[in-house]
Amino acid sequence: MSTPLGDRILKVDHAGEHGAVNIYLAQILVSRWTAPQLVPLLRHFLDHELGHRTLFQDRLQARGVRRCRSYVLCGVGGWTLGLVTGLLGPSAIAATTYAVESVVLQHLMEQRQQLASTDADAFDAVSRIVVEEQEHHDHSRDAMHSGAFWPPILTPIVRVSTEAVIWLGMRL
Question: Which of 8, 80, 88, 119 has its CA 20 to 30 A from that of 65?
């Protein structure tokens, strides 16, 4: 028997939020030296992602659904991405958040369309995080400096990687 779409979406989104939490944790750790001016903003974004992860975790528990098998992969990948981009500095941090959120927002909109008439609870959970994810996207887009070295390199790599993790998670 296949897993209902709403359950799969909640599982993948939960794993993705775990990845985001780890990106910010690693970036905060390293940014204390490479970009201390960003630490308060990164903590603000981390608070959002912690809330999102808890929201999805609570919904999964209420449904009796186990977390996604990609949860650990997202955590390790997020930590690694956060550590590397934190070391590369402010433009790499902004490019990473912008790229991840570009993909996430697109998927959230698609998920909302898929869930609107089939799973009100999952639709509500997905809908509740859109505004904060948009804030992360917009702030990071505006923080990327024209002519900066890292954004044109990191943005496509991070986008493709994020897409791949979502694709894999929906199939596990």
Answer: 80
- pTM higher than 0.85, yes or no? yes
Q: Are 154 and 89 in contact (CB under 8 A)?
A: no
CATH of residue 121: 1.20.1260.10
Contact 107, 166 (CB under 8 A): yes
Into how many domains does the chain fold?
Answer: 1
- Backbone phi, psi, residue 55, to 5°: -55, -50
* Six token digits for residue 154: 């990191």
DSSP per-residue codes, 88-124: H-HHHHHHHHHHHHHHHHHHHHHHHHHHTTT-HHHHH
Neighbouring residues of 167: CB distance < 8 A, sequence distance ≥ 6: none
The domain containing residue 13 runs over which residues?
5-171
Rounded Cα distance between 21 and 41, Å, is 14
Q: How many Cα atoms occupy the beta-carbon half-sphere of 16 within 13 Å?
A: 29
